[in-house]
Amino acid sequence: xxxxxxxxxxxxxxxxxxxxxxxxxxxxxxxxxxxxxxxxxxxxxxxxxxxxxxxxxxxxxxxxxxxxxxxxxxxxxxxxxxxxxxxxxxxxxxxxxxxxxxxxxxxxxxxx
Length: 112
Fold this sequence. Notes:
By secondary structure, the chain is an alpha/beta fold. The chain has helices at about 10-30, 40-50, 70-80, 105-110, and strands at about 10, 50, 60, 60-65, 85, 90-95. The strands form two sheets. A three-stranded parallel sheet has the order 1-4-6. A three-stranded mixed sheet has the order 2-3-5. It is elongated, with a radius of gyration of 16 Å.
């Protein structure tokens, strides 16, 4: 059976927070599933995480994008603290210090 691979693009504070929670839920399901759910567990881990060597944390297939580095750093830090999964730090991008939740400011000063 052909296995699908999913890469999430987590954009902005909400996208990064929801994406981190989604990966955390999937990682918990992979590590706590019963022996009868082995196929399900492998399906989740192969679809949403990169293959890892035995004993290493699963690495999420996610790209984190935000204007504010603090949001991305928080998501990466929380993932590491979980002890079961992490993000690849090279898969994140933050440009500025943020626009203080002001869309017009961000659009006019950092936009096109």
